[in-house]
Specification:
alpha+beta, Rossmann fold, Phosphatase 2c, domain 1, 2 domains, 5-stranded parallel sheet, 10 helices, about 35% helix, about 25% strand, elongated
Length: about 400
Amino acid sequence: MDTARKKRKMKEQRGLIIVDDEERVTQSLEREIKLEFGSNAFEITTFTDPTEALSFIKENSDRIFLVISDLRMPEMNGSELLEKIRSANGDVQTILLTAYTDLDSIQRAISASIQSLIFKPWTKECLIGEITKAQRVWELKKENRLMANRIDGMLRSAGDFQQKLFSQVIPETGSISFSVSSTPLDEYHCGGDFYDILDAKNGRYMVLLGDVTGHGPKPAMIAVMLKTILKPLTDDDPSLLAAPDRLLKSLNDKLCALLSCTPETLIAVSAVYLDPVAKTLSIATAGLPPVLHIRNGVPELLRTPNRILGAFPDVPFYKTERALLPGDRVVFFTDGLVESVKDFHCLTTEEYLPLLTRCPDYSAEAIRDKFRPLIGGGTFSDDATVISLCVERLGPS
């Protein structure tokens, strides 16, 4: 049967391909399979030319669940054919048929992940059993792929919603310039990192950066919850906008009550308050890497001994302060920027401080790009968010 006729014959139902340079073998296999499964269970297409078979399989691989191929054939042997099929479409199941004990070729086929090896003369029970197994595996893979696509779509929708909720107009002020880069983990499209820039009036700002433990929808939902409870919290007590220690304590009390049913959920937060009028910087950290106060290109690590949020009610929180000068920069980030989860490695301050010493570009994106090559594989294995602030001038706006 020529290729054009075979293409017309191939319908939407699943297909089984038989490849053997001896036509009597393909006919025998086709007859035996049809006797057991019937003529309508799937479409059987036979080839005596492996090159022609490969071309056909590539064009129709989404419908083909199984390829049965002879090992010894001219031009292209069966192990090479099955290798190429596997590289083109990993869902297609493959069976190698041989009457020879050619160990090298058999080993090559096994390395290409063939489903099974059947020796000639085959038994009916073995042949039918392997075809039945191939159908089941192919259907499971197809179902898994559909489910994975649905889950990926839901995660993307959650990520889009989170991004829209978190996106905000970066304040334009003559006193402070803001730069933010937030990169969720590619695998989940949404994550537990969150940030907020709260206007404390008269050129003053409280900037929060947080990281909820875990990956995917649950931490993303909690991050959204954090974003939504900040406003009523600071509306009830506006003085919190000028006190990072008290703001973290208020958040912690609220979170300990809200998350009492999920004690495994923890939130790391850094709160940075900039007051260009009083010329002061106040920070409180709880579980995140240190905040960097950079003056004349030289970074100073700032951190406070606060417990991570959501687990310990009624604990005290502390802050530390520094004087601000024009040109000072403040950089802080979530631990996704410095941790490689898969390599169980976290960059030390000695490893990354040189990157931020007299750096020509302190924008959040530039800092993210500087850190990425230091992480295992050159890709972040967690959500990574960077906030970079620059004091342009001091005094009232």
